[in-house]
């Protein structure tokens, strides 16, 4: 017969964290003016976190105070988030009750930063489930915050699907011109991005004109250095433009002024393409994506057996397009 006293053990660890008895690690979290000092025990940190285990294992780890405590500085995490994380490391418990949306994001990012995959994914799921509208309102910032974090794939995909379904959220935003090139490339590579070829081209031009240098808005005033610089900026994106969707009229009015940044082969091939004819129904595609997204997001409550009325209305309307 065996007995489980795990709960009692967690209480002891929680008490140890609270009393700071015999602590031997001092952790400085945050940057001025918001820096907070935390006290912990190296054996618990090493057992519970690979991140801290690696740091404490270094031979040259800083030991500055008279008591020989380990000194660790983590400036890129906010103290409020680390307070939750440290309690999680000691007790295995986390409480998101009464946490603001920003605090939850900070916990998620800090968990990812400290390689706490389980806590990062837990907070990610909680945010997606509970704060759908918040994510939509700050979609660009959140996507930029998470796109290169491997443990936050769900949130990246969530943001991508919304951007692809409603591109104006990003492309009509003042923040669009500040979008990093790798992130823009990820978006433009998506087959479900609901922009036509000419819309992609126009947005690329808008983005490119704000990068690296100040270009004259009148392209006919550019010298060869301007053309070469602009070509270098947009070169990686040119293959992602759906030129087969661009009409001859749009090409003449909107593409030809910048034609020198295109390869000779592309220019020749375009003029061989007959007038563009839509080969798919973009609206049907949009609503198929929308159906998929609402089934995964918080608009669809698993406890209900029906779609929200507004979503159902959109789906029915799509049938007539």
Automatic annotation (TrEMBL):
CDD domains: BTB_POZ_ZBTB_KLHL-like. InterPro entries: BTB/POZ_dom (IPR000210), SKP1/BTB/POZ_sf (IPR011333). Residues 23-98 form the BTB domain. This is BTB/POZ protein. It comes from Glomus cerebriforme.
